[in-house]
Design a protein that fits this description.
The chain is of the alpha+beta class.
C-alpha cells in the first residue's frame, strides 16, 4: 500500500543548513519566546505511528514540512 503524504508550505524566512540539522532537537528554537518542543514532539508522534516528518527549504524561500504515514490495511473497505 502507498503511504499517506501531507505537506505544509509557508513563505517565511526559510531554513538554513545549520537549522535543518537541529530543527527537531528538543529545546532548539529560532523564535523569540519559543520553547523548541513543537517539532520534536510532532516528529516523535509521527515516528510512533511508523511514519516520518521531514523539513526542506532554503533561506528566503520558505519551508516545507512533509509527513509520511503508512496507510492502514483495508482502510476504506467495507
Amino acid at each position: 500500500p502507498l503511504p499517506v503524504v501531507a505537506s505544509v508550505a509557508d513563505t517565511g524566512k526559510g531554513i538554513t543548513e545549520e537549522q535543518r540539522g537541529r530543527l527537531f532537537q528538543p529545546f532548539y528554537t529560532t523564535r523569540k519566546g519559543g520553547h523548541g518542543l513543537g517539532l520534536s514532539i510532532s516528529r516523535t508522534i509521527v515516528q510512533d505511528h511508523q511514519g516520518t516528518l521531514d523539513a526542506s527549504g532554503a533561506p528566503g524561500t520558505g519551508a516545507i514540512f512533509t509527513v509520511r504515514l503508512p496507510s492502514a490495511r483495508g482502510a476504506g473497505k467495507g
